[in-house]
């Protein structure tokens, strides 16, 4: 959970955690940045907010985000009233992390539909906002498909199913349900799909926590990289959910938090979540992980994933591969936790994963201040790829998989919705490629 003040609300409008106490946002102000059209408002307050939530009219339709670039210093809520604002938020990492990108992508499609915009164009733009985390295109595709099927109209109505999965006779459907205009029906379907993705993600998170706990020894000193908690999930996250489960089971002696240069998702976000959850933790420079392992201070490394290729290669935040090599050298188990939606059977291996390259300034500056001579070029891949042979086990909502290899991945991804490769499918539908 983000904070003790949070609880899951029952309201269907708020699928995740939401604030239950404390004053509402007291200071409201417009940011003077280069916000794209569609950004309704930005406000700061003492509220603790969920990473993402949907706003219905009259406040919406809009998607509200906790701006992760501002944490831990302040909790700023950004309201994206249009898809361009949501895409900008994704690209500047105001909202980030693979599972949450899937959720955001689906809500983005719902937003376009609710605003009566070009949903196909919005879906394509959303799916292309960041290239590595497959969940983004997967979530977009699911939302887009739901919208498309509902928009198809009469033939879709004839295929309706009741809650038990039985097909309803068309006559009964028409008597039982008020007639909803087609565009509204399609927008409702996209929104329902987005909420379902969020609910599934929360369930997956809980299942990963339960499964991954079996891999955590007593008095474990766990090292993690980047940020994998409630900020990236509709639940408690991926790797961080396992860590939380270990803490609750009394098995966590210490969480080692890699700072995760260049954007410090570890120091800023994981340490923030760890502190709120009362975890014994310490932040370290990424370069200190080797000597820490050499000193016998790490019992387990556990990280998340942005895309898992068909052969089991894992793309995750840059620095993950170095940790895997170190872990192998020091005989420390190296575990990846990710929902099945992160597996991409359409990507055959690590070399086929597109690694996002980000601006040089993220490396040549630190917290907005230049640290390299002006004009220094930089190498700034956002992710790296760890080959399956360095991965001890993969934790998904379907359990623990080991060894990690193509056969295991095939079995895992078999029942995955959209297993044919979401990004390509979206593009094929839109441009007939
Ligand atoms: O660039 P980011 O911050 O979106 O990268 C996020 C990561 O690499 C996470 O470790 C990964 O998405 C797993 S999140 C459960």
Task: Provide the descriptors you would attach to this structure in a database record.
Rossmann fold; 7-stranded mixed beta sheet; 14 helices; disordered C terminus; disordered N terminus; binds 5-S-methyl-1-O-phosphono-5-thio-D-ribulose; 36% helix; single chain; 2 domains; Four Helix Bundle (Hemerythrin (Met), subunit A); 433 residues
Would you give an account of this structure?
The structure is a single chain. This protein has 433 residues and is α/β, with parallel strands linked by helices. The protein folds into two domains: 5-153 and 180-202, translation initiation factor eif-2b, domain 1 (Four Helix Bundle (Hemerythrin (Met), subunit A), Up-down Bundle), CATH 1.20.120.420; 215-413, Rossmann fold (3-Layer(aba) Sandwich), CATH 3.40.50.10470. The protein is built from 14 helices and 20 strands. The protein has helices spanning 83-91, 98-114, 119-127, 134-151, 154-158, 170-176, 182-212, 239-248, 265-277, 289-294, 320-330, 361-364, 406-413, 422-431; strands at 6-8, 17-19, 27-29, 39-44, 52-55, 62-66, 76-80, 220-224, 252-258, 281-284, 300-303, 307-309, 314-317, 334-337, 343-344, 365-366, 369-370, 383-386, 393-396, 399-401. The strands form five sheets. Strands 10-9-8-11-14-19-20 form a seven-stranded mixed sheet. A five-stranded antiparallel sheet has the order 3-4-7-6-5, covered by helices on one side. α2 (98-114) runs antiparallel to α7 (182-212). It starts with 5 loop residues before the first strand and ends with a helix. The relative contact order is 0.11. It binds 5-S-methyl-1-O-phosphono-5-thio-D-ribulose (MRU). 5-S-methyl-1-O-phosphono-5-thio-D-ribulose is lined by residues 93, 96-99, 133, 226, 228, 232, 237-238, 265, 304-306, 316-317, 382.
């Amino acid at each position: 959970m983000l904070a003790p003040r949070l609880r899951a609300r029952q309201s269907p409008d708020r699928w995740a955690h939401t604030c239950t106490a404390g004053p509402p946002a007291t200071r409201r102000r417009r940011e003077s940045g280069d916000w794209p059209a569609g950004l309704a408002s930005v406000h700061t307050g003492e509220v603790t907010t969920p990473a993402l939530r949907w706003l219905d009219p009259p406040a919406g339709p809009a998607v509200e985000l906790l701006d992760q670039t501002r944490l831990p210093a302040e909790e700023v809520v950004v309201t994206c009233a249009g898809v361009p604002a949501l895409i900008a938020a994704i690209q500047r990492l105001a909202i980030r992390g693979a599972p949450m990108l899937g959720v955001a992508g689906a809500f983005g499609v719902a937003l376009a539909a609710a605003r009566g915009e070009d949903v196909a164009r919005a879906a394509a733009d959303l799916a292309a906002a960041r290239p590595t985390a497959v969940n983004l295109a997967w979530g977009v595709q699911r939302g887009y498909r739901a919208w498309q099927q509902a928009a198809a109209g009469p033939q879709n109505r004839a295929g309706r199913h009741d809650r038990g999965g039985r097909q309803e006779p068309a006559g009964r459907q028409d008597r039982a349900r008020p007639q909803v205009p087609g565009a509204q029906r399609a927008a409702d379907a996209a929104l329902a799909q987005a909420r379902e993705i969020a609910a599934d993600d929360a369930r997956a998170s809980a299942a990963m926590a339960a499964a991954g706990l079996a891999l955590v020894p007593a008095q474990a000193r766990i090292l993690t990289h980047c940020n994998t908690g409630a900020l990236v999930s509709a639940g408690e996250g991926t790797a961080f959910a396992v860590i939380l489960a270990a803490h609750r089971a009394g098995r966590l002696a210490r969480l080692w938090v890699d700072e995760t240069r260049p954007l410090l998702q570890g120091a800023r976000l994981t340490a923030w979540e760890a502190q709120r959850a009362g975890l014994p933790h310490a932040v370290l420079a990424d370069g200190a992980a080797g000597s820490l392992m050499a000193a016998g201070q790490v019992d387990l490394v556990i990280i998340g994933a942005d895309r898992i290729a068909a052969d089991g290669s894992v793309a995750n935040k840059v620095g993950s591969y170095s940790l895997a090599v170190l872990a192998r050298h020091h005989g420390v188990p190296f575990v990846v936790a990710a929902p099945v939606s992160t597996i991409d059977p359409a990507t055959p291996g690590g070399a086929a994963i597109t690694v996002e390259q980000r601006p040089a300034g993220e490396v040549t500056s630190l917290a907005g201040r230049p640290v390299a001579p002006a004009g220094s070029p930089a190498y700034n891949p956002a992710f790296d790829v760890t080959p399956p042979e360095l991965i001890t086990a993969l934790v998904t909502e379907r359990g623990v998989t080991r060894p990690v290899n193509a056969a295991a991945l095939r079995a895992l991804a078999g029942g995955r919705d959209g297993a044919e490769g979401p990004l390509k499918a979206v593009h094929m539908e839109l441009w007939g490629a």
